[in-house]
Amino acid sequence: MSIDYSERIPNNVDLAGDRRLQRALESWQPAFLNWWGEMGPVLPNRDVYLRTAVAVGREGWANFGRVALPDYRWGIFLAERNPDRRIAFGQHRGEPAWQQVPGEHRSSLQRLIVVQGDTEPASVEQQRRLGLTAPSLYDLRNLFQVNVEEGRHLWAMVYLLHAYFGRAGRDEAEALLLRNSGSADSPRILGAFNEETPDWMSFFMFTYFTDRDGKYQLGTLKESAFDPLSRTCEFMLKEEAHHMFVGTTGVDRVVERTAALMAAHDTDEVAALGAIPLPVIQKYLNFHYSVSLDLFGGETSSNVANYFTSGLKGRWQEERRADDHVLAGQVTAVEQVADGQIVAVERPALAALNHDLRDQYIADCQTGITRWNRILASHGVTGQLALPHVGFNRKVGMFAGHHVTPGGQLVSAATWAREQPGWLPTPADKAHVQSLMRPVYEPGKIAAWLAPPRNGINGQPLDYEYVRF
Ligand code: BYC
To answer: Fewer CB within 10 A of the terminal residue: the chain, N end or C end?
Structure first.
């Protein structure tokens, strides 16, 4: 079904055929717009060159045009339904996918949807001031694209809450607009979404590492036996790819400029040259990677075992796995701290599914490191970037409460406190990065602390007026 844009809420779920649901969502809409006005991007502008979803098929699913941000058409889009879809894992493997929520899984499914939904507006809140210091109109446009699509992902979760979870779902949908990132009284649910994104280096690292957690979590929810959730996440993943592109190429460009200056001036001290020194890039990477690892929950978790067995949340690329998709009685190796050492222990595979997902994620993160090191090498720079050890700077899971160096050594609290300024951004590092954050709003011009992008958006030239004021 194509998307009907003549409706107040564009959708491909035949909203007009369910008046009650339509009215409920139409009454949530002003609250959303109010939230967007108060917590969304602060930089006033006339319009932005944005992509908007217009269909959900494989080809030509979006079109590009100039849109005033508050007029963006946030809508409800689910991937097409496969009427033959069957559950791919767990105790219901082989049964038809569910079109309604089974009573016994109501609260768990609702919880998963609320946790997912909570991250979407949180990221918009975290990024709301970045427009004031955008390094170019191209980057500013990408920021706004990410923001409107995170807003749409909130709509996606709110639709599920309204359509399938009755009164409790409507209350949760309302609460999604009431919690706020970093709020002392009612913070966002997951740790990383209460951290600040005060500068563009943080934004690029966030879109590389934290949006990538989003990709993997959505990938597991796409496997869900609850078909509307699966179809919703499938379409969200399409939009998500651009967010990670922003992160990958954003870090590329910072590394490129730093490496070029290191080579041209034969020095590591590029701060005075208006760039971000390699060790500072590494510290930002260490921070964003470690808080993103926390988003996978505990290495072993009875929650995740239950989610899997009952069919609520699968594994990354479940159907490509060559095993029984039930995992009862199977074991896997998980790291653990025991007697002052990091050792591998065997745990039930079912309980260790957060760990399994995290492993897939880590391998994916490594591809960025390889890419950035290639950029460094192409300038003859011998320094390298690296992912820190999985136990570094962790607040959730088995490493929480331990002090692990980026190299993977367990150290005392005193050593940690002494060495930490070499591993995580210091106030001085943050102040330097902040000092580079000066807005560049002239078409085609780019701030000096990062290289220009290789291509424009949707075939437009780099000096296109991506945002008009
Ligand atoms: N901070 O059994 P455990 C995205 C809680 S990002 C605070 O080990 P479980 C995006 C946990 O909720 C993807 N609390 O974990 C990216 C549980 O509490 P309850 C977001 C945490 O349940 C960029 C307790 O600790 N989507 O889309 O197996 C921009 C014990 O936890 C944290 C999802 O996360 C934390 N970091 O797994 C925009 C998918 N970690 O229930 C968007 C939905 C754990 O005992 N969520 N806790 O009160 C889930 O699948 C799971 O809830 C989690 C945790 C993976 C988060």
So the answer is: C
Residue nearest to atom 2 of ligand 1 (CA): 301
pLDDT score, position 58: 67
Report the atom number in ligand 1 closest to the C-alpha of 294: 36
Q: Closest Cα to residue 102, out of 173, 172, 165?
A: 165
Distance CA 77, CA 152 (A): 9
State the Cα–Cα distance between residues 131 and 154, nearest whole angstrom: 21
pLDDT value of residue 56: 75
pLDDT of residue 60: 66
Q: Residue 119 C-alpha to ligand 1 middle, in angstroms? A: 10
As a residue count, the chain comes to 469
Q: Which two tokens stand for residue 338?
A: 């025991």
Pocket of ligand 1 (CB under 6 A): 112, 115-116, 119-120, 123, 150, 190-191, 210-211, 213-214, 217, 294-298, 301, 303-304, 313, 354, 396
The low-confidence residues of the chain, meaning pLDDT below 70, are 1-2, 58-60
pLDDT at 6: 78
Q: Whose CA is nearest to atom 15 of ligand 1?
A: 297
C-alpha 296 to ligand 1 mean position (Å): 6
Identify the burial level of 138 via C-beta atoms within 10 angstroms of its C-beta, where 0-12 means exposed, 13-18 middle and 19 or more buried: buried
Asked if 426 and 433 touch (Cβ cutoff 8 Å), the reply is no
CA 175 – ligand 1 centroid, Å: 17
Six-digit token pair at 296? Answer: 């996978």
Instruction: Supply the pLDDT for residue 42.
Output: 96
Predicted confidence at residue 352, as pLDDT, reads 98
Rounded-to-integer distance, Cα 250 and Cα 255, Å? 9
Q: What is the full DSSP assignment across 199-262?
A: SHHHHHHIIIIIHHHHHHHHHHHHT-SBHHHHHHHHHHHHHHHHHHHHHHHHHHHHHHHHHHHH
Instruction: Write the CB contacts of 87 (distance below 8 Å, at least 6 apart in sequence).
Output: 93, 94, 95, 96, 97, 98, 225, 311
**Nearest to residue 228, comparing CAs of 96, 81, 75?**
81
Query: Which residue's CA is minimally distant from atom 55 of ligand 1?
Result: 296
